[in-house]
Amino acid sequence: MSRQPVAPRPPRGDDAGPDATPPSAPWRPVPGQLHSWDISTGVDGPGSRFVADFIGSVNLFEGIVTEDEPEHVRIESASAGTTLYIGHGISCVPGAKVAVAVRPEKMQITRETPAAGAENHLSGTVREIAYMGDLSVYLVELDSGKTVKVTMPNLVRSAEQRLTWEDKVYLTWHETAAVVLQS
Fold first, then answer.
1. Residues with Cβ < 8 Å from 102, sequence gap 6 or more?
2. Is the C-alpha dihedral spanning 43, 64, 182, 152 positive or negative?
C-alpha cells in the first residue's frame, strides 16, 4: 500500500509564478489548508505546531531560543524546566519562540541519575503506567509540573527491574531526536 500526500506541494522551481518556491526550499503549511507529514524527507517528526498538536503523540516543550549556531541550538524551556540542546542549527534569531517536539519512543526513562553535564535530561515522577504487552507507556510528571508520555519496550521479564508508580525517574534523549517547530 503506497502512501499518498495529503496536500499538494506549492509550485516549485520552473513552475514559475508568484507562488513558486526554490527547489531546495522546504514546504511550509498555509493556515486554512490541509496539512501533512512530509515522509519524503525522512524526517521523523511533524512539520508544524498544528500537525504536532493534531497527531497528539508527541511531547511539546515551549521555549525561547537562547543560542543558534550552525551545529546546534539551545532553547530555554520553562515547561521542561531546563535548557534543551538540539544537535543542529535552525536559522532563527535568539529570543524566537519555538516548540521542541520529542516523540515518546525517542525518550529513554531510567531510575539512574544522568552523568553530570549531560544534555537533554529531565526528572520527574511516574504517575501512570499502561502495560501493552510488548511495550509500556509511562506518564511522567516532570519537576516543572508538565506531564509527558514515554514509551519503552518490555525487554526484561524481571518484576524488580520494572518502573512503577511514584518512582523518581530521569528522561533523556539524543540531541538529534527532537524537532524544533517555529510555526
1. 58, 59, 61, 173, 177, 178, 179
2. positive
Phi and psi at residue 49, to the nearest 5°:
-65, -40
Q: Which residues contact 17 (CB under 8 A, 6 or more apart)?
A: 11
In the block, cell 523518581 appears at 168
In this structure, which topology does domain 27-181 adopt according to CATH?
Answer: OB fold (Dihydrolipoamide Acetyltransferase, E2P) (2.40.50)
Rounded CA-CA distance 158/176 in Å is 31
**Please, which residues bridge with residue 62 across strands?**
99
Ordered DSSP codes for 43-81: --S-SSHHHHHHH--SEEEEEEEEEEETTEEEEEETTTT
Domain positions in the chain are 27-181
Over its length of 183 residues, how does the chain's per-residue pLDDT go in tens digits? 444 444 444 444 444 444 444 444 454 555 665 544 444 444 455 556 555 555 568 999 999 999 999 999 999 999 999 999 999 999 888 899 999 999 999 999 999 999 988 899 999 999 999 999 899 999 999 999 999 999 999 887 766 668 999 999 999 999 999 999 986
pTM here? 0.71
